[in-house]
Design goal:
The chain is of the alpha+beta class. It is 21% helix and 26% strand. It has a single domain (8-215), classed as Nucleoside Triphosphate Pyrophosphohydrolase, CATH 3.90.79. It has helices at residues 74-91, 112-119, 174-181, 190-199, 205-214; strands at 16-25, 30-36, 46-47, 50-52, 66-67, 123-124, 128-135, 144-152, 166-172, 219-220, 223-227, 230-234, 245-248. Helix 3 runs antiparallel to helix 4 (190-199). The longest helix is centred in the first third of the chain and has 18 residues, at 74-91. The radius of gyration is 18 Å and the shape is globular.
Length: 254
């Protein structure tokens, strides 16, 4: 897998590789949502932590700094590293197996690879599973090839937004997040809502991880049809979502 520098002229042709993490915990069963700042991608939206795959996520050193990933190829590892990195950068949550991790609040500016090496820690890929794979339609002005990953949250963590990309973060039950969506002036992105609906079919972290590992990973490319000033967004029924279409008030950004 290669990561290329973005070419604005080719944005509609070549989607950028990205990773998004559904970070979950039990008692009660909740998922982490962050609120984007008013500027940048998806302004003021509540989304799962995530972002583009960067060159550092492909570094060869990662294999010796990870556990539970022996069955994964380099591309799979890079997506997982990107997702873990984004959770760390946007919400201050770092999934590790071991290592002295004290004083991390002073290390947010460090790149993840240097931080993990210095602390003698290992990233836990065994607590992650592929959840979904979405690709923005070719007609969109910006495109992403996004791997949605499901991950068990570490027990001892303190949420801490970076204040730049994200301004708030909270744990919420999937069904509660969906109920709130109707009253939120910004609403949820269609992809966020759809994956919350899929996650809400599970009752705990173990069930969600088992369901994800047993579910075929089907590439989802949504389509949108405009009617009466709104957009009907559709996804293939075989993708396994409880709902395969929904209305949005503005041109969908997926």
């Amino acid at each position: 897998m290669q990561v290329r520098e973005p070419d604005p002229s080719a944005a509609s042709l070549e989607p950028r590789l990205a990773a998004t993490v559904l970070l979950v915990r039990d008692d009660p069963f909740q998922v982490l949502l962050v609120k984007r700042s008013a500027i940048g991608s998806f302004p003021s939206r509540r989304v799962f932590p995530g972002g583009v795959v960067e060159k550092q996520d492909l570094h060869e050193k990662w294999r010796s700094l990870c556990r539970g990933g022996d069955h994964l190829n380099d591309a799979d590892i890079a997506f997982r590293i990107a997702g873990i990195r984004e959770c760390w950068e946007e919400a201050g949550v770092l999934c590790t197996v071991d290592g002295e991790l004290g004083g991390l609040s002073d290390a947010r500016s460090d790149d993840l690879l240097s931080l993990v090496e210095r602390c003698g820690a290992h990233l836990d890929l065994g607590h992650m599973a592929d959840f979904a794979h979405w690709v923005t339609p070719p007609s969109a002005p910006k495109r992403w090839d996004t791997r949605f990953l499901l991950a068990r949250a570490p027990r001892d963590h303190v949420l801490c937004c970076d204040g730049v990309e994200t301004v708030a973060a909270d744990w919420v039950e999937p069904k509660v997040a969906l109920d709130r969506d109707a009253d939120d002036m910004h609403g949820l992105l269609f992809s966020t809502r759809a994956n919350l609906q899929l996650l809400a079919m599970s009752d705990c972290v173990d069930d969600a991880l088992e369901a994800a590992r047993n579910r075929p990973l089907i590439r989802v490319t949504p389509s949108a049809t405009r009617k009466d000033g709104r957009f009907l967004v559709s996804i293939p029924a075989e993708a396994g979502y409880p709902v395969s279409e929904g209305w949005v008030a503005e041109a969908p950004r997926l």
